[in-house]
Structure formats: C-alpha cells, structure tokens
Amino acid sequence: MKKKIKKILLTFFVMLFVSFCSIFLGTSTSSALPSFSKFSLFSNCDSSLWHYVYHPGRFTVYNYCTSVSGTVKSVRDEKDGDVHIQLSVDGQYKNMLNDKNYSGQDACLVVELICAKKVTQPDAIEPCSGYYNNVVEPHVGDNITVTGSYVLDKQHGWNEIHPVSSLSIISKGNPQDMDKNPVVGKTKSGQLIYQGPRGGRYHYSANGNKVYEKK
User: Fold this and answer.
1) How far apart (Å, rounded) are the C-alpha atoms in residues 5 and 7?
2) Same domain flag for 186 and 142
3) Which helix H or strand E contains 10, and what residues bound it?
4) How far apart are CA 24 and CA 16, in angstroms?
5) What pLDDT digit, counting tens, does each position of 112-156 carry?
6) What's the pTM?
7) Do 183 and 167 share a structural domain?
C-alpha cells in the first residue's frame, strides 16, 4: 500500500515539475498537437481545444495560456467554423502585435472562437465534428477579456489568440462610436448609413456587424 502511494505521489510531482518547466523554459514549435505538459496544472486554458484545431502545425505557440483585454473592432464568421474577431488591444498589450497585425488586421490582435459556426471548409469539417463551441460571441464595440493560446499564424504572418478558452464581456459598446467614416443617410428603419473609404455604403446590424447596401 505504501509503495502504491509513493508511486502516485512520484507521478504527481513529475507532472508538476514538467508543467512548471514548460512555463519557465518556453514552448516548442512542433507541428503536432501541443503536449498537455505544456499547460500548467493550474492553467485557465482548456488544452483539449487543440484537438479541434485543424492543421495545428500552421501555428507557432508563444504562450499556451495567456489573457488580453481590449475593444472589439470587427466580428465575422469564417468557412472553417471559426468566429474571427479583430481586437483593438489595451495599451499594455500592444507588444503582442507584429507588423502583419498592423498592416493586415487594422492594428488589431486576431481572436478565434473555434468551431462556433457551421463548417463548410472541407479540411476543417472532421476536426470540428462532435464539438460545438459555446464561448460567448461579443459584438463590435464591446470591451472584453480573452484567455487562450497566444500564437503566430505562420500562413498569414500575424499574431492571434487561438484557440480561445474563455471570453468575458466587461462592458457593452456601441460600434458606431468607433466609426470615423461619414454618415450619408439612413435606412428605412432609421439606421445610419456610412460611406467607407472605397465608396461602399453600409449600416450596422443588431449584433454590431457591418451590412453593406446593395448597389
């Protein structure tokens, strides 16, 4: 009995040691699924989410579990079932952005809620099968805090929180407060119509997304 208890305790302390080493010694960039040992035993992140990320090798992991706050600049559904969020991060998190975040994502950090919508992209169907993400979806203008893995998307070159383990809405916002484009009219229901820099006209839907007017 004593030998069995010693074996259990030894296994626990080995796992604990490996977990803390992963925090202080960094992370790997393997193309395989991240090892559970890379997540602290006291982590606020769900390591199992990586099983539903298609082609995980397209990411370099900087930090397996971190949090960031900011204001939602845009929200859109993608063919791979993810909800793609542009997050204008608070000042203390600006160092999480790289040049591609500035040039390709409007100076925002990308935040991905995986398997949250219908999947139509062929290579993403199987990874998302049997799983539905119930993380709350924010609206444009909301101030939020996000917790998840901080990664580099090697295909696009920008940094992301992907996958997201949790998302909290700190305060609700109004997307029109963030829009600097000129108002050129109103819809039949009284919504303001804006004109974008390329001439396109749009208004905001109830969930804070842009809806472009048909020409």
Assistant:
1) 5
2) no
3) helix 2-25
4) 13
5) 999 999 899 998 989 898 888 888 889 888 999 999 999 999 999
6) 0.70
7) no
